[in-house]
C-alpha cells in the first residue's frame, strides 16, 4: 500500500522520518490501515513485530502503572503506540478510530542498512515483484539468515595444510588427489603456458613443487570454485553459467594485467583469484531464488543481483576467510572512479580495469567509462593504448597465451 498521502504521513512519524524517501516508499508498500473499536484493547507483547500509530480517534496507554491518553494528530500520536522494550504495556481505545501498522523488522532492516557505512544500494528501478524479492533477500542478508555457499572440502583442507608451518608436499598431494577434477586441473595448470618448465609433469606432487605452495593453494581454490556456481533451476542454471563465464574472463584478464603491471605487492595468482570472486555475491542470491521456487526472468535477475552483489559478496568472502583485499574487491570493484590511500594500486584496481576491458570487448561502447580512462588504470602504470588500436590493452595482447591457458583451465569459452 503506497500513495502520496501515506508518504506524507510517514514523513511526520518517528522514527520512520529518519529513513530516506526511497526506504520510506519500501516501508509503505507493506503498510496496513486497521479499524479500531471503542474499548478495544491492545497488548505490547502481541503487537511487538509492528510499529503501530494512532491516526484517527483517542487512545489510552498504560505503562509502568501510569496511563497516558492522547488523540490522533497530537505530538504523542507521531510516536509508536508501544516501544520495543516495554512489552508489558497495554492500550485501550477511548473511541472508534484507525491505526497504521508498519513492519518493525523491515524498518529495522532498512535503518540498519542506511546507517551501515560502505554500502550504497545501486540506483536501479525495480518493479513491484522485483522489489518484493529484493526486500526478502536484503532482509535475510542483514539478519544474517541468508544461506552462503560453502567452500568445497578439498579447498578447505588445502588452505589449512598450506598454512601449517610444517606442511609436507606429499601430504598436500594426497589431499589434492581426493578430488579428481582438482587433480586434473592442477596438472593442467602446471603444464600450461602459465608455469610450464622444460619438461611436463605427470604427478600431483611434482606439480605442487613446480607451482609452489602459495600458487597451489590459490589454484586449488580457484578450480574448486566452479562447484559453487551450480543451480538446478533451468532459468537460474543458464544465468549461473553466464556468471561463471564472466567471472573466469575477468579472472584471466586480472592475471594478465597484474603480471604486466609488475606493481609491488600485486601477485598475479592472487589477482586471478580476486577476479574469479569479484561477483561471488550473485551466487547466494541465485540460490535463494531457487530455494524459494522463484523463476524470475533474466532481466529481473540482473536488476536484483545488481542491487545486492556488493553487500552479499563481502559476506561470502568474509565467511571464507579470504582477507581484506578480496573483501574490498567484492565490495568496490564496480566503483569506477574509486580513490585509494596515497594513490597506491591494489587488487581492486586490477579487477576494475579487467571488468571494463571485458565489457568494452564484448559489448562495445556501453556508457561505462573506458578501461584506460579510470584512476585504476593510471595507478597500475599501464601503457596507454596506441592511437591506431584504441580499444586494445597491451597488457592483454602481450599475454594471450596465459589468458587462453586460464580459460582452458576453467573450461570457459
Give short descriptive properties of this protein.
413 residues, alpha+beta, Jelly Rolls, Hypothetical protein af1432, four-stranded antiparallel beta sheet, 9% strand
- Low-pLDDT stretches are none
Structural class assignment: alpha+beta
CATH domain topology of the domain at 232-413: Hypothetical protein af1432
Return the CATH architecture of the domain at 232-413.
Answer: Orthogonal Bundle
Tell me, briefly, the overall form. elongated
Distance between the termini: 47 Å
- Text of the CATH class of the domain at 232-413: Mainly Alpha
Strand count, sense and barrel status of the largest sheet are:
4 strands, antiparallel
Considering DSSP H and I runs of 4 or more, what fraction of the residues is helical? 40-55%
What share of residues are in beta strands?
A: 5-15%
Q: What is the radius of gyration?
A: 27 Å
* Overall residue-averaged pLDDT value: 87
Tally of helical runs: 18
The side-by-side strand order for the widest beta sheet comes to 2-6-4-5
Number of strands: 7
**Topology order in helix (H) and strand (E) letters:** HHEEEEEEEHHHHHHHHHHHHHHHH
CATH superfamily of the domain at 232-413: Hypothetical protein af1432
Could you characterize what this model shows?
Helix content is 50%, strand content 9%. By secondary structure, it is an alpha+beta fold. Among the domains are: 4-105, Jelly Rolls (Sandwich); 232-413, Hypothetical protein af1432. The chain has a 4-stranded antiparallel beta sheet, with no helix packed on it. A 3-stranded antiparallel beta sheet has the order 1-7-3. α5 packs antiparallel against α6, α7 (180-190) crosses α9 (213-224) and α10 (234-261) runs antiparallel to α18. The model has no long low-confidence stretch (mean pLDDT 87).
